[in-house]
Amino acid sequence: MREIQETITRRTKDRLGEQPPHPAAIAGLYLLCISLIWFLPGFLAPELFGGGNAYPFIIFEYGGVYLLAAVLFGCSAALLFALARQMSGPGVRAFALAVALLLLYLVPTYLGGSMQMILPFYVPGWDYFGLSPAVDVLMSAVISFSGIGLLALATIVPILLIDRYAPMKRPYAAAAVLGTLLFPCLAAAIFRTDPVPSLIPWLSLSLSTLSVLCLGVAGAAVLSIPLVVRRLLKGSGNPPQQARIFGLLLLCLLLVWFVPGYLEPGFFLTGYDSSNPSSWQKRSWFTPYGPGDLECPLSTLPTIEGNYLIDMNVFPAGPHSIISPCTMYTHEHTEERYIVGQQWYRDEWTFRSEKRTLFESLTGIGEVSETTLDLGDHLLAAGFERSDAEREYPAWLFINETTRGYILTYERPFDDGRSNDFFIVYYGTYNTMGPDPDRSLKALIAQRLSPSAIRAPGEGLYEEERLSRMPEAEPFLYISGMLRYAGILLLTPFLFGCSAALLFAGALTELETQKRRFAIAIPLLAAVLLYLSLISAYLTGSTWMPIPPFYLPTSEPLGVSTLLEVLLNLMIFLSALTFIGLGVIAPYLLLKRYLPLKRPFRAVLVSGTLVFGILVYPLMMMLAVWGGLRPAPWLSPLVWVALGFCLAAAWAVVIYAVQAAAGRKG
Q: What are the boundaries of the signal sequence (predicted)?
């Protein structure tokens, strides 16, 4: 294999010499890449872009298309980087290119009436603008090509800046890899981003586009940090400047603190947030559960009609299978059973299509009629305002020989009506009906009602709607979300590994310059970090310290003002995480004389990544979720921080021994 590679390299050099490829060749390849990104998804997996829900097996079929599009986007980013790098005056030319691409994207998208950034994949038969097919295809191509160019430009801007001041060894490979890694995050942002609210409506598209582009720039900058750390630590033989080392250390620690809670707050937030719930909460938002306290667990729902025992993820047969899976509620005394099921949609076109299909299915097995619900006493008992209790709410009433049920629909219940979330919720009897099933059904409906978002189910049922340009790609979004979360779980430990390597470089340089003994300096530094991490915790009266305590704007664990909470949280986190980093590097500082390593900085980076990703991070998070370690209140923060330090140091010793043994064998 190596001989083949050398032969190809030699022949390529003989043919091209040392001259770089012509810009026209690069531009041609770039156009080919973005054309394939535009055409292949809709061509290879048209089921995902034709409307309606996709079958589960399409997720696996589309996985290859998704990965192919990501790799092609990475290639297009590398080619665009090559073009930008060959330009004279890169700053001015790159800015002019960005303005040109922005105009090419915004103008035709505005003509199509869009209010948010889109990246439409062409599928034959789609009506984008309502014009001739040729014009529709041309306009779609202009929008898509310029949109892909903007995203690629956003991902290479940090690399252009870094390469200018700290030249990379393989910048084109870095651009390709970063573009491929960022594709899931950018794609999910495009398809999930709602129109940005604006006082001037025509600014919404510009603001939505800029928000996605800023996400691309920020993501590329974060992913470029390990490259900068590697360049800095490798250096030119001279020790790096301490200011640069500790500046990057602080940046890495801040990103470890901020990135997980910012990119995926739903995974670090428990409970309900009615203003902006996570996708996991939306999947069962209108399904009532118990309060989950000491008096009544989640599996028991108290109402004014009595208690109901809950059985989740039920797949009923017969007419009840219209919405599945369902949650079953059994009355504690009468043994009457009821079911509640909901469907959640992210766009209006699919919501109305599914509502129409549901209506036609119900009319085939029973009688459907429009009705209004008076939920007065039930809403008051559930804690709603009297004004809500005095209203009547529209619904469908479904009746056949064995079943009685209500269907409610909700449109945009979150973010003050700006979210693209739509719900169909079914409440019905199961198998047998009691003397007055409406009382129980109304009690269940009242538990999770959203008065401002409820709509008549028949509203707009048969209206002619213009086809949306947004693809119906549920598997696409699902894969994007999972890859993004997996990327966060990998990126966070890697950033900590970079911070550990920087801390090792800074501490080693400082201690060798000052000629201080490591055995004395390390305990002193540990004492200072421990003191800094504990002082804020004790000032706020905290009795436990989750590590890492990711900051979330919606949570106020310290019970103080938001700004003060952020500052105290940040002070606790930075000092505590640095203390754990000291535990990682302590074996490398103390044992380097006895078991020297060939590449100590790389060894520390690997050790920090493994320690944080395998042990400290998941263990501390699990303990925090399960209630934490809580001995005497004044000892608890000390125990938490000391536990993290000891775990990190113990595992670092093991990893150090393995690396030293492997180095000796090598």
A: none
